[in-house]
Task: structure prediction
Amino acid sequence: MDLQFTPEEQAFREEVQAFLKDKLPQHIAGKVKAGQRLSKADQEEWHAILNERGWLANHWPQEYGGPGWGAVQKFIFDNECALAGGPRIVPFGVNMLGPVLIKFGNAAQKSYWLPRILKGQDWWCQGYSEPGAGSDLASVKTTAVRQGDHYIVNGQKTWTTQGQHANMIFCLVRTDREAKAQSGISFLLVDMTTPGVEIRPIRTIDGDHEVNEVFFTDVKVPVENLVGEENKGWTYAKFLLTYERTGIAGVGFCVAALAKLKVIAAKVHKNGKPLDQDPLFAARMAQVEIDLENMKTTNLRVIAAVAGGGVPGAESSMLKIRGTEIRQEILSLIRRAMGPYALPFIEEAQYAGYAEPPVGPAEAATAAANYFNYRKLSIFGGSNEIQKNIISKMILGL
Amino acid sequence: MNFEHTEDRRMLADTLNRFVSEQVGIETRNRIAYGDTGMDTALWAQFAELGAIGALFPEGDGGFGGAGFDIAVVFEALGRGLVVEPFLGALVVGRALGAAGSAAQKERIAGLIDGSTVASLAHDEPGSHYALSRVETRAVRNGDGWLLTGQKAVVVQGDNAQLLLVSARTSGAVDSEDGISLFLVPGDAARLVRRGYGRVDGGHAAEITLTNVQVGPEALLGAEGQGYATLERAVGYGILAVCAEALGAMEVAKKDTLEYLQTRKQFGVPIGSFQALQHRMADLLLEVEQSRSAVINAAAAIDSADRTERERALSAAKVTIGRIGALVAEESIQLHGGIGMTWELPLSHYAKRLVMVDHQFGDEDHHLARFIALGQA
Result:
């Protein structure tokens, strides 16, 4: 039993730290640390920097351009990135579609799409959820009907994150309407510039435009854009959802957020004393810090099991539930710490380059917005209740 | 990074788990735990023979272990069987002897390891309520020895102990860390009155009243007035031990509850098919894993020379175990329904121990406040 990193792991960690110090642009890290929104260009810039180093698709096997890292290295990398203010990688192409193509795609699909993902030539988004299918994914209604060399796609996708930046969308579509829910689904790649594809923004609770609705009206999709076999899409979708979720706890993001909270609590005053001297607020902070310390070790235990040849199955559900709860609690405390200054809603102040002086503490501009935005954590990727269903079935055998 | 125990430690755990499950079934345990003396001398000797006590001490003190993970492994196994024999006193008193004892005093560790001496820490007092530096018991010089006067509260297995480690104030204010001295006092010393009783969760404890109890100069452990640091370190081992013990008890409560959900039928189906119960059980599993992580963190930190790091990890574990121990107890009873309320069901005894762990060495609130204070120091 040894909680310390090995000398090799420690050396790798230092290599990552040196890379981040050297290559992570200040204007991007600054926005991440301040909780400000990132532009499409910011995200593309960071992807290009990672790709140049060969670290972008760190889940991919080496033959497709991955760095060949094990679970511990991936954890260290994700952690160090989060601590340094590195943005989360846009997951749809790199972390979601890539592994599906590698596992189930044909040679032509792999050789065409994978390099384009690495080079940032396509911006992918995810066409899973529908108005009637959230956590109950298998009830997708969007249809694809074969006509000669094409599928004709009709239907609607929703909650399409960053879809406004995307030129490509991977979709779950129903190719057999007679089949039971989970069979009869296919995995299709759709060019969003095809006639009949329409995208509309959804404004979320925090006022932001992050998610979209995508409508398909008689959209012609070439049959070579079918991944794997027709009607087997559910298998691929499930693979995608459980793929490499050891990072799902977001421990690095939690640690960075807690550090930010502590700085704020030492700076913001309540009745002449720093907020971290207030016994009740200090107790809330301490409780979440203790939960996080435990979570860190729980996460490492799962990673060690994976590195030792174990399979990250339902354990990732535990990491997801507790990791997202902790992160939401920290964001809630940052909001609380602002006191009445959480109230002002000045949308422009949430972006870098806002020229006016801040209203209240600098962090106040994004505190409430981020708190509300990150309510999504316990809903997406399979809601936390779905994760409990998975634990019940897979671990507890209920 | 490596979360596997060493071969030796795995063997120790296996041996001990097997011994506990084969020799200390719940009926035997309850007979001992709620019996006249609250421990079984023959069983205690068997534990000593197995090496379970020696595993708690480093080689320099005559043991063959003593690392945080050795202590965690032993006490988790004890927790699985709700063992009430006086391991805790042996650990806490023995580690204090090892840390601060003279050569002659350290020789007494051998008696702890071979099971011939039952030892207890006599520190808490009626008004201290977990505050470690609050000591009203006084020791005054008398000739070349000392006279001890005061009252010690809920001394675990204190009525069975041949050796008591008694904290007493030789100077300083009532709640000052300075001025606390530690004394080795025979359990049967003259003018030392013990009122023994059974505990809610099994085993015994005692109220101890000292009225001008005479001890010699050789009774003083460590330097006069400098006992606090030794006390804190010894209690730290105790915290780790009861946290690991609770973890073992949680695992059993979890297993029993899960089996019940799978077998008990209502409305014609196993109650484990109800989502309301599934989610509570999933939460329980998650919390028990967090508890295991907390124990690992504490075991890894216990030998750290950095006091803040060490004591924060210990307090964090105690907060975690305090909260989750009670949660597991309450949820296990609730998920069992009425049967969970019965003395007959083993679960009820696990539930009692899990709740009562929070009443030893400082509860959840105490350690949350301590965690905060240590972070600000």
Observations:
- Chain A has three domains: 7-89, 123-230, 245-394.
- The two ends of chain A are 32 Å apart (CA to CA).
- Strands of chain A lie at 124-127, 143-147, 150-157, 168-174, 185-191, 197-203, 209-222, 226-227, 269-270, 273-274.
- The mean pLDDT of chain A is 93.
